[in-house]
Each structure stands twice: as structure tokens, then as C-alpha cells.
Amino acid sequence: MILYIAEKPSLGRALAEVLPKPQQKGDGFIRLGNGDVVTWCIGHLLEQAQPDAYDPAYKQWRLEHLPIIPQEWKLEAKPKTRSQLTVVKKLLKQATDIVHVGDPDREGQLLVDEVISFCGVPATKRARVQRCLISDLNPGAVKKALASLKPNKEFVPLSVSALARSRADWLYGINMSRLCTLQGQKMGYQGVLSVGRVQTPVLGLVVRRDQEIADFVAKPYYEVLALLQTDDLAQFKAKWQPSEACAPWQDEEGRVLSRALAENVIKRITGQPGRVSGAERKVRNQAPPLPYNLSALQIDAARRFGFSAKQVLDICQVLYERHKLLTYPRSDNRYLPVDHFHQAGAVTAAVAKTSPELATAVAEADLGLRSKAWNDKKVAAHHAIIPTAKTMDGSKLSSAEQHIYRLVARQYLAQFYPPWSYEDKRLEVEIAGGCFVATARQTIKPGWKTLFAQQGKQAEDEEEALPTSLPDLKVGDPLLCLQGELLDKLTQPPRYFTDATLLAAMTHIARYVTDGELKKILRDTDGLGTEATRAGIIELLFSRQFLRREGKQIRANEAGTKLIASLPASATTPDMTARWESVLDAISRRQAGYQAFMTELEASLPQLIAQVDADAFKGLQGGARPKAFRKRKPRAKGVKRKA
């Protein structure tokens, strides 16, 4: 008997749909017509054991117990899904062969692997386990995946990486949360002060941003524009570029702080002749934006529709599992396999039927064009989020589902449009010894931009558009400065985080890393958390009342601010967790080892514990008495699992 183990029931049903019939539905499984069986997990059926599973004394939270470091790791069945674990365990004993059908990511690999190991499957049978990678729940795609099984042992590094993440998060979270909660309790706070290696740096980003805004003092600065006229009476404006001699009157960002200096420039240039000292014009082509991964989709949806990260993920899961209109949504990849290019006709036809608003865009797409999105070398376990070839009446989707489907579909259609072609012009002008610069950008062919013309601004912090034209001038051409214009400006504080900008910060965390060496080695794709966890991390901070929303703004509450103040910088900045993610990624690619990673973390815990500042919790009020301090029944002992 072949046993197929899917990550969740919806995937199990999609598998059974293309496997032999007639079928018999059981409690937690489907028996196929040929005697094989499809079963499923319900996410993780197992979890890391609680501290009291290692020592009953740990039921009480005490400083002298810290750090708690298991010598031999244990897993426990999750109470809510214990019955399904029993079903899977029984079927594993009956199976002669096993097909692992977890989601195509790090966690999906681990959650089935750990069940197979926990249930005591013999080594000989484990060695024969096959891996099935499914990113599209439509029958054709599932059949194709089943025809392309790979040995599961090829994915061991992915599973080890997820295991290292799970255990390291336990070590860090359990010890630091107990420490901060106990220290907070000493100062009168009775809530749980939860610390995590991802959630706490995210909270730190918000707390520091709030503080920067609170401490900000606006400073006046000045810019000078020259209104210039050509011999044929065409006019344009150019901006003054202060010379090195002006440095004493500028701030660190080059802004002129002296009004007298700016007024003097205006007096010197008004009515004076000038000449073109530099002229550039370059035609550039910009390729269409790549299809979405989850973070990019969440950021765009937050900016355009005000959706939270969790809302976007939930909508995507419905479009993937229930409607089967999108491919696997928890993807961190923005590229597509080359063989998927041949499905473009079916996919675009489905888009036109499901979303008639995009029918014209489909009709104008050139399916012979192949963007850089199709690249096998950049596709790992999963690919970009795109529409599937399934069609349905789009009016039956909710308004939010329609919004997300159209976003994904439009981004996919862009791959079949030519580049945006434009010309950049730059003129340098010399007036009375000063340098002035004018720039302009003019579209030659809109290309893929036509798809987004009706969507408005793509970012709430989008820069002001450049002028669209400048006179055709060459070096040496004479000009007349009709007048100078003084612009009174004020420096602006940073903006409060929003769902979109906080997600963007988590995704491109290198911008916020303080360690210069680490910043250099981080790739753009490295971030705080993963595609699958970022939405949950943000929501967790809200549920624990560390963060609050004021309109679109995200701000820190007092408990969050005090918690960050109590912790060493290494626990509240992204450096440590960015380094973790870098190592975890290296483990998944066989370029780093589990043991070295865990040993370093265990050695660092006592130092981190010693650095927590209990005094920072002074004055913190409120908080419900944490469940951890209430009397409770002993927890069932876990099953030992060696590293």
C-alpha cells in the first residue's frame, strides 16, 4: 500500500481527485480504488515540548532555572489534532511505501518528516520515501507533480534547516520570555512579556521609529530654482547645486541651512546670462516587474486596498485551496520554471474569463514574449504566485478576492508586454559661477505600464514625478536667467510604519541592520521571518498589545516600548535574526551545519540573560495575570527525539 501524506485536508482531496477510483472516505483519510491511501496532517501535528516535559520543576517560572537548555529534544502531539496523528500513525504501520506531499517550503518539509520519524517508521522504509511538490491544486498540475516524484532524502537539508529554526526559536523564546515576564512582575506588571527572535526585532523597528518621530525637531532649509529662457523663448527651471565652498552652511545631507546664502545666490543669478555646461539624453528600457511572491503581493495590496498582511494571506489561501485560481501562495520566489511558459495560453484565457475587466489586457498581450521571469536557475522548491488555468464566474468571488486575483493576474500579464521605453534628459547650466541642474523623463513607448495606468500611485511614498520635457540644447548654448526662486522648506520626520512599509522593512531588512559586515553579505531577499510567517508575526504583536493601529499607522504601546528598553540591542535589532536566517538558508543548501548553529546559540544565552535591564520595566502598569502563573494540570510527557 502506498500512503500519500498531504500537509492539509484540501491538498489531500486534490490528490485523491486524480488517483484511482472508486474511493472510500474514512475518518482522516481516503482509501483509493487500488488500495492505496491518502491521508493528511493539519499543519504541524507535533510541537516542541514545554519545559515541564523535561523537568516538572519548570512548571514554576523561576530566574534560577534559566537558561533552560534540553539535552535531548522532545516533541508532543498537539492536543487539538491528536486524533489525526493517531490515524496517520496507524496508516504508516500498514504502508509499504510513503509519498511525502507537504507544502513546497521549509516548514512543509519538516512537518511531514517529523511525523514519519515520531511514529517510528523503520529506516529501510524511510529511505524509500518519495517527495511530491505541488504548487497548483488543479488536476492537471497535480497529475504532473505525481509523475515527477523525487527521493525525499534529497530534501533532508531543508528539513534540518526547519528543525534548527524550530528548536532555536524555542530556546530563545522560552528563556527570554520567562526572564522578561519575571522581571516585569517584580516591577508590578502581571502580563506575559513575550520575546521572540523575530517578533522582538519587528517590535524594535516600530519602537525606534516612534522614538525618532517623537524626538524629531524640524529644521528649515532652502533650495534655489533658476527660471531659464532659451534664445527661442522656451522656458524651464533648474535647481541649484551648492559647491564645496557652501559646506559650512549645509547639514550632513547637503541641505542648505542658511537663508542668507540662498538669497545671495538669487541676487547673483537674476537677470544674468548662463550657458549649458552639460547635456545628456539616454533612452532606457525597463523590463516588467516580476510576478509576485507573497511579501510583494502583501505590500502592494496594503498600499492599494489597505489590507493587512494576514488578510492578504487568508484571501490567497482561499483562492488557492477553495477556488484553485492561484498557485501556492506562501512563496518567497518571484520566478517561474521555463516549462510553465507553454501554459501561458491556457492561463491568460482563464484570466480573461474569470476577470472580464482584464479581457482587453489579455487580448493585447504578446504570448511570444518571454520576460526574465522564466528562469529555472532561480526557481527552488516553489515558484512565483500566478493565476492557474482554472476558470470560474469572477462575480462569485468576494470583492477582496477579486482585488487580489486581479493584482496577481495583472502582474502575470505584464510578462507578455514589451519594456517601458523612456528617455531621460539632464542639463547642467552654469550661471554666475554656480551650477544648476534640470532633469526630465519622457515616455517613448509605455509597454507594460499600460497595464497599471488605471491603478494610480503604486506607493504612498512615491517620489514626485519628473517633468516630461526639456528644450533640446547642447553644450555651449546660451541662456538667460529671468529670475531666481527661493523655496522655504522644512525637514520632515520619518513616517509612522503602516502595514505596507512594515512588511517592506521586514522583507528588505538589510537596510536596518547595524552591523556593516552583515549588511554586506545579506541579499535583498533575506528578511525578518519568512513569507509564511510575517503576517502572523505582525498580528501576534497586536494580539499581545505591544502594537496598536491609528488609522493606517502602526505604533507601539507602552508595554512594547518598555520591553524594548529592557533588552540588549542584540535582541531588539534585526542583526541577530538576519544572521540566523542567513545560516538557516545555508543549512538548507548544505553550506552550514545544524550542530554549530545550535552550539553557538546555547553559548550566547547566559550572556543575553545577564544583559536584560529589569529597571526598564518601572512604571509599567496593567496586564492580565499570565496563565503561566496559574495552577494547572501537569502536562503529558513528550517523546524523546535526538538531534
Q: Regions with pLDDT < 50 over 5+ consecutive residues? A: 456-463, 624-643
SS field, number of helical segments: 20
Oligomer: single chain
What characterizes the major β-sheet? 7 strands, mixed
**Count of individual beta strands:** 18
Q: Report the radius of gyration as a whole number of Å.
A: 29 Å
Q: For the largest beta sheet, what order do the strands appear in spatially?
A: 2-3-4-1-7-8-9
Beta fraction: 15-25%
As a percent range, the share of helical residues equals 25-40%
Structural class: alpha+beta
The general outline is globular
Distance between the termini: 30 Å
Overall average pLDDT: 91
What does this entry look like structurally?
With 643 residues, the protein is α+β, with helices and mostly antiparallel strands. 36% of the residues lie in helices and 17% in strands. The chain has 20 helices and 18 strands. The chain has helices at 9-17, 82-94, 106-118, 123-126, 139-146, 156-186, 199-215, 259-269, 294-305, 309-321, 344-354, 359-363, 399-413, 499-507, 516-521, 534-543, 558-566, 569-572, 575-588, 594-611, and strands at residues 2-6, 24-26, 29-31, 37-40, 46-48, 74-77, 97-101, 130-131, 150-151, 220-229, 235-241, 273-286, 420-431, 434-445, 478-490, 547-550, 553-556, 639-640. The strands form four sheets. The chain has a seven-stranded mixed β-sheet with strand order 2-3-4-1-7-8-9. Strand 16 and strand 17 (553-556) form a beta hairpin. Helix 6 packs antiparallel against helix 19 (575-588) and helix 6 packs parallel to helix 20. Residues 456-463 and 624-643 have low confidence and may be disordered.
